[in-house]
Amino acid sequence: MPFYSNRIRRILDKWPGKQRLGIYRFLPLFFVLGAALEFSMINWTVGETNFYHTFKKRQAKNFVEEKLQITQGQVQTPTKEVA
């Protein structure tokens, strides 16, 4: 038994472009929501940090660890695992 709401169905049916685009008529909405999420990740800070500060810090840490392993001769070549 599928769960659905008549109110949601009415709202979705009133969304323009049903005849021409079908289910793809919601694509611009999701594009805008994705852009808003990305904008918030870049510009909103909590304390002294935001998403990209954390990401860059982690990337730099991985880079330094990799370089230390190379200089110490502990480099292991990645192997492909066959599933």
* Beta-strand residue fraction: under 5%
The run of helices and strands is HHHH
Query: How would you describe the shape?
Result: elongated
What's the tally of helices?
4
Per DSSP E runs of 2 or more residues, the count of β-strands stands at 0
Distance between the termini: 37 Å
Helix proportion range: 55-70%
Mean pLDDT: 84
Number of domains: 1
Low-confidence stretches: none
Give Rg in angstroms. 23 Å
Structural class: mainly alpha
Q: What's the story with the biggest beta sheet? A: none
Describe the structure.
The chain is an all-alpha fold and 83 residues long. It has one domain. It is 61% helix and 0% strand. It has helices at 6-14, 18-21, 27-43, 51-71. The longest helix has 21 residues, at 51-71. The two termini are 37 Å apart. The mean pLDDT is 84.
Structure described in brief:
By secondary structure, the chain is mainly α.
